[in-house]
Amino acid sequence: xxxxxxxxxxxxxxxxxxxxxxxxxxxxxxxxxxxxxxxxxxxxxxxxxxxxxxxxxxxxxxxxxxxxxxxxxxxxxxxxxxxxxxxxxxxxxxxxxxxxxxxxxxxxxxxxxxxxxxxxxxxxxxxxxxxxxxxxxxxxxxxxxxxxxxxxxxxxxxxxxxxxxxxxxxxxxxxxxxxxxxxxxxxxxxxxxxxxxxxxxxxxxxxxxxxxxxxxxxxxxxxxxxxxxxxxxxxxxxxxxxxxxxxxxxxxxxxxxxxxxxxxxxxxxxxxxxxxxxxxxxxxxxxxxxxxxxxxxxxxxxxxxxxxxxxxxxxxxxxxxxxxxxxxxxxxxxxxxxxxxxxxxxxxxxxxx
Length: 353
Ligand SMILES: C[S@@+](CC[C@H](N)C(=O)[O-])C[C@H]1O[C@@H](n2cnc3c(N)ncnc32)[C@H](O)[C@@H]1O
Description:
The protein is of the alpha+beta class. Helices cover 28% and strands 33% of the residues. The protein has ten helices and 17 strands. The longest helix is centred in the middle third of the chain and has 17 residues, at 176-192. The two termini are 38 Å apart. The mean pLDDT is 94. Residues 112-114, 152-155, 157-158, 172-175, 178, 240-241, 259, 261-262, 266, 268-269, 281 line the site of S-adenosylmethionine.
C-alpha cells in the first residue's frame, strides 16, 4: 500500500482565539481523533511550515476513506484539507456535519461565553472517547439521536453545537439571567430561520415544591422531517447542577461536557457559596452527573488550572468510577486564555459495563 501525505490548514479564527496555540491544539485534536475513531491509521502527525504558513501534516497507508474524511471534517480547527503531491496541494472536499445553521453558535455575544471553536473541540474529543464516537458522522443511518448533557451550560454554546451536529441536547444552569437570555435568543432564532418547532417553558414541581423550570424545544430541519417526526430536542433546566439527577432519567446520556466556572468572571456556586475553585462543586455534582450517563459514555471537562490543578480533577473523576484519559495526546490541550486563565481539558469514560 502506498503512503499518502496530507496537509490541514488551520482555521484563521483559531489564531485569534488561541493566540499562538491554534496549531498545537489542532495537533492534539487530530492525535486524539486518530487514537479513538480512526484506529491509529494516521502517522507522522506534526506541524510544518509550507510557504511560510503553519499546516498540520500527517501520512496514511493508502487513501483515506469517506468515513475518515467525514471525521476529519468535524475537527474544530480545520479550515481546509489537502493531499500533498510533491510540491503541490490537491484540495480534498470536506463533508460538514451540520443539520442546522452554524450561526446558532455565533450570533449570541456575552461575557462568559465559551468560544465556539473551543466548545466544538471539547464536544468532539468527548464524543470520540465515548461508545458513540465512530457513529457521530453516521447521520440518518444512526438508530437514535446521540444525547448530550451540559450540566453548567450558561447560554447554551455546547447545546447548540450538539444540535448543529444532529444530537439531542440538555443543559442545566443555576443562573436565571442565562436561562432567560437563552430562551429569548433561541425562540427568535427558530422563528427567523422559519424552522418547524415547538418551544415552551414548564415549571418543574414535585410534592408541591417548585424545583426549577424547564425550556423544552423540538425542532426539525424541514417540513418533511417534521411530518416524519424526525425531530431533535433541546432542553434547558434552570436549577442547581448538584440536583441534576432529579431532572433526567438515569443512564440515558452518551456524553457530558462542561466548561466549569473559571473563578474570574463566574464563580462555582457550591452549597449556596460562591467559590473560586470549581473542585468542591465538582465533588458534589459528579455522582449525580455520572448516574445520568450510559455505560461507555464520555465525560469532558474544561477548567482554569490556576484555580484547580489537573491531578485533583483526575483524582475526582477516578473516585467516581470513571476511567480518566490522561496520557499521550489527551494531555495536549492546556492553553492560555488570558492573564488569569490557563484552560485545560480532561476527558474520562464510564466503564463499558
Ligand atoms: C464558564 S461558564 C459556561 C459558559 C457556557 N459554556 C456558555 O458558553 O454559555 C460556567 C457556568 O457554570 C454555571 N454554574 C456555576 N455554579 C453552578 C451550579 N451550582 N449549578 C449550575 N450551574 C452553575 C454558571 O452560572 C456559568 O454559566
